[in-house]
Amino acid sequence: MKKIITALVFSAATLSQLSAQPSQPLSLKDCRRLALENNEQVMTANNAVEKAKLDRQIAFAQYLPKVDGSFTMIQLQDQDLLDIGDVLGLQLQTRGTYLAGINVTLPLYAGGQLTAANRLAAIGQKVSEEQRRKTEMQLIADVDNAYYQLIAVRAKVQMLEAYAQQMQGLYDQVKLAAGVQMATENDLLRITTKQNEVSYQLQKARNGEQLCGLALANIIGIESEKLIVKSEEFATASDGADSSAAGNSSLFTLHSSPSEDFSSRPDLLLLQQQVQANEVLVKKERSNYLPTLALIGSYSYHDNLKLKGELNLPSGRSLDYNHTIRGGSPYAMLALKLPIFHWGAELKKVKKAKLSLSDSQLQLQQLERSMRVEVRRAVQNVTDAQRMVETAALGRQQADENLRVMRQKYDNQLCTMTDLLDAQSQWQQARSNLIEAQAQLKIYETEYLRVTGRLQVQ
Which terminus of the chain has fewer Cβ atoms in its 10 Å neighbourhood, N or C? Predict the structure, then answer.
């Protein structure tokens, strides 16, 4: 008993330690995967694809023969019939009579309606798949947006924390200098004021980090308390990093020619499929003019149908007559249906289908123009963002060097406290600009891939 209690205590302690451990930090790839797994719209799109596959199988089944069975049980009172020949008092007994049959129907020609139905089902499956891809791409774009915003705000928090440490070090240095009459109380007051400003900015950035974390957790479908995100994406924004690598992760260089091809974009493919579907609908409406032909085969079996009466013999005697009718009867036939006159209704349906086809073609032309503008705007945004990263990286290098020079001058009493604080403010602004430029570049790159239909969902 003591061993069991010891084992239970050890297991409980182990579980508590495991539950206390933090979750594995999530990368961008992990966030995308969780979003695709937990998003309700993606699940609905998956169900739509499965339903489209079933519709295609149902449409194909129309080519195949249909087999139907029937069974009928009759339970009626006996029916008196007229005398027939030598049979007197004839009765028809149907109690327990049953009919069983099987029918086979094979469509031979349906005027092209079956072919049109199968083509529409195939188009419907493609449409559902492209709709799912569109939903997944938009979700990934939302995840990237929220992810890089969180990373950018977190980098700003780290930068402001480093800034606060610098200000604290400067405060301690000036306080020692003020103690030996080498600095004034006004210098300490100015540093304290700057510290309060940095503290306010830091608290504001931390609040923004929490809000960005909530937004990302909501998109990927997990609790915000369990959200732990890797923060190495903007390592170039922290101390000691090589700012020359700030723009090396761009999708394409400034001197390359990014493709403006958007032929694989889901929105475009969806409308192209709509045009094809309307073309099939025109043919389907025309098929209403054509005859339909089907082959029908059947076999029915009946049993327990009885005739009962009296039979007059030549000798003058009577004999009870009882006969059970049973047997089967197969048959086959061709069924032909030919439309002759419907007051022009079928012609009007064809005209209506042609108008729908024309509308979809016009929508496709309009969509291609708007997509072309959207893609060019996305390309321009990526190019401008890359230039901004390079400019911000250069500005950060200059700000770092300026701060280093000003600290040396201040230590040698060659510049004022105002010059040093201005250099530190420029250092903070330069790093903040670099963080924002890097995050915006990542977001623009994802948007470029989305509008060109090349954003990989896996």
Answer: N
Whole-structure pTM value:
0.78
pLDDT of 12 > 60? The answer is no
Q: What is the pLDDT of residues 90-114, one digit of tens each?
A: 677 777 788 899 999 988 888 888 8
Tokens of 329: 């009867």
Query: What tokens were used for 318?
Result: 């009577």
β-strand partners of 99:
72, 302
User: Can you tell me the distance from the alpha carbon of 455 to that of 99, in angstroms, rounded to the nearest whole number?
Assistant: 63
Say if residue 307's pLDDT is above 90: no
Rounded Cα–Cα distance for residues 14 and 12 (Å): 5
The CA–CA distances, whole Å, from 263 to 173, 272, 377, 388 equal 63, 10, 17, 29
Sign of CA dihedral 181, 185, 190, 194: positive
Does residue 418 carry a pLDDT above 80? Answer: yes
Binning pLDDT at 50, 70 and 90, where does residue 260 land? confident
- Nearest CA to 431 out of 163, 100, 181, 56 is that of 163
**Residue 236: pLDDT over 70:** no
Residue with tokens 């405060």: 171
Q: What is the CA radius of gyration of the chain?
A: 42
Residue 14 predicted with pLDDT over 60: no
The predicted pLDDT at position 328 comes to 85
User: Three-state SS string across the chain, please?
Assistant: CHHHHHHHHHHHHHHHHHHHCCCCCECHHHHHHHHHHHCHHHHHHHHHHHHHHHHHHHHHHCCCCEEEEEEEEECCCCEECCCECCEEEEEEECCCEEEEEEEEEEEEECCCHHHHHHHHHHHHHHHHHHHHHHHHHHHHHHHHHHHHHHHHHHHHHHHHHHHHHHHHHHHHHHHHHHHCCCCCHHHHHHHHHHHHHHHHHHHHHHHHHHHHHHHHHHHHCCCHHHCCECCCCCHHHCCCCCHHHCCCCCCCCCCCCCCCCCCCCHHHHHHHHHHHHHHHHHHHHHHHHCCEEEEEEEEEEEEEEEEEEEEECCCCCEEEEEEEEEEEEEEEEEEEECCCCCCCHHHHHHHHHHHHHHHHHHHHHHHHHHHHHHHHHHHHHHHHHHHHHHHHHHHHHHHHHHHHHHHHHHHCCCCCHHHHHHHHHHHHHHHHHHHHHHHHHHHHHHHHHHHCCCCCCC
Determine the average pLDDT of the residues in 359-368. 93
Query: Cα separation of 439 and 303, whole Å?
Result: 84
Cβ partners under 8 Å of residue 270, min gap 6? 127, 130, 131, 134
